[in-house]
Amino acid sequence: MANPFIPDEILLDIFSRLPAKSVVRYRSLSKKWRTVLSTKHFVELHLARNPHQESFIFISSEHLTVHSIDKIEGAAAAVSRKIELPNKCLRVVGSCDGLVLLRNDEGGIFLLNPVTLQFASVLPASPRQALIHFKFGFGYDSSVDDYKIFRYYVRDLVIPGVFLDVYSVRGGFWKSVENPAYIPNHFEIGHGAFLNGAIHWLAKKPIELDYRIAAFDFAREVFDEILLPIGIDEDGFVLRYKLVVFDGCLCLVEYKMNSGTDVWIMKDYGVAESWTKYDFRGELTPLCYIHKGEDVLVSKSGSLHFYNLKERKSRGVVVDGGAVMLREGCMFAGSIVSPFADN
Amino acid sequence: MAAETGTPTTLTLKSNDDELFSVAESAAILSVTIRNMVEDGCAGGVIPLDNVDGKTLASVITYMNGISAIPADEEKKKSYRDKFLSDKDFETLADMVLAANYLNMSCLMDAVSAKIAQVMEKKSVGWVRRKFGIENDYTPEEEAAVKEEHKWTFEGVETDDDN
């Protein structure tokens, strides 16, 4: 090379553009680079440069094992990687900045970074916990630069009342939210949807019957209400609707009686007029756009499909040479964010 | 500034191996370093660029002319940059990132850095050490341990082709 080697400052910038997997590999370059590629500054720069959720983590319903597909975009035949965990995890609550919140039916809650394979036990399993939990959410609070886990629970099955706790990942402690103004729907299968600094649930006020979308804002620690689309069928609302985040937008998925699905997307956050309806054939949940927006990756009857928007048809995604049966799964961004509390 | 009079002004740039290049001022001032010299009135004669060799400077000037001919359309500019960099090998890209840094051209710097990242994405640790002059200060035992810790990230790594 005619020129001298690239200075560290430029090299660091180049490293920040690499996929998380490559960054982790290059921590073996030298002791110095292992340190540099682990600083808070670098982790944040890398995250800002690689915000896209291109990976998928799922629990196989056949073997109850955790697997990850590193890049799902365009893959005609995807290959999954089995992730060995010290604890059995049966449910995927959701992901934020590359951290995935997992739980099991014994009440244990865990955070996993599927790229660095760092695994943190947030709450140990206990039979009591298993009974009282019923709703979770996970997101990032920019006002204090911390990841937070939300759990709704009942004290026990006799004493009435629903309680809300928030866990600070960096701090490593729980804090309770007094008298939460909204109670999420027991029946809805999904978990809280994180977007714009708030966790969204299909929820109702304690004394009322009507469900709506409640958003708990992290920074202000208050609930806001998001208006539902006009013209949705409120009959049997809680049983047939699910809230997800799709393409960076809040998205209300409605399973129709005729086995179709209406996908309502709130294009401008908080603007009720911006709810836009797309109807899909089949009962499915949209995960993300792929193939430059021609297809939508969906989960349908426990497996992954590419749904073609023009033809309105879906075809199964081949994973490890066959159709994978999913118990639960979610998209995540490959990051090097640590799931551990600060020391 | 002369550009405002309507007559295109030409600048003469000199590489560190004494090659001379003529370039329209309107294209050259994509470089903040050159723009500052023009604004300070130091661009009358020949502008010496001590950190850039002739081969790299020729390439940068091709880029300056190409990108400034495209109207304000980010999509088109992006596809020009992609095409411009598509056939460049690692050594050329490394020279260009240093030149872009010295000339203070953020758009080129960004594009070349992204391209280098794309080239090195699947490379081995040894390849990166050689190309970037990184000294391995691990003992063999430490290195084996750190690799074992993140074993899966070594899957799918390309075999080195530069030996």
From TrEMBL, chain A:
Ranges where the F-box domain occurs: 1-45
Gene3D superfamilies for the chain: 1.20.1280.50
Pfam families: F-box, FBA_1
CDD domains: F-box_AtFBW1-like
InterPro entries on file: F-box-assoc_dom_typ1, F-box-assoc_interact_dom, F-box-like_dom_sf, F-box_dom, SCF_F-box_component
Superkingdom as given in the UniProt entry: Eukaryota
Name of the protein described by the UniProt record: F-box domain-containing protein
Organism: Erythranthe guttata (Yellow monkey flower)
Lineage of origin: Eukaryota, Viridiplantae, Streptophyta, Embryophyta, Tracheophyta
TrEMBL record, chain B:
Keyword match Oxidoreductase: no
UniProt domain SKP1 component dimerisation: residue ranges: 108-152
GO molecular function, one term: cullin family protein binding
Keywords in alphabetical order: Ubl conjugation pathway
Any one biological process term the GO annotation gives: SCF-dependent proteasomal ubiquitin-dependent protein catabolic process
Domain SKP1 component POZ: 11-65
CC per GO annotation: cytoplasm; nucleus
SUPFAM superfamilies: POZ domain, Skp1 dimerisation domain-like
InterPro entries: SKP1, SKP1-like, SKP1-like_dim_sf, SKP1/BTB/POZ_sf, Skp1_comp_dimer, Skp1_comp_POZ
Stored SMART domains: Skp1
Subunit structure: Part of a SCF (SKP1-cullin-F-box) protein ligase complex.
Family: Belongs to the SKP1 family.
Full protein name: SKP1-like protein
Lineage of the organism: Eukaryota, Viridiplantae, Streptophyta, Embryophyta, Tracheophyta
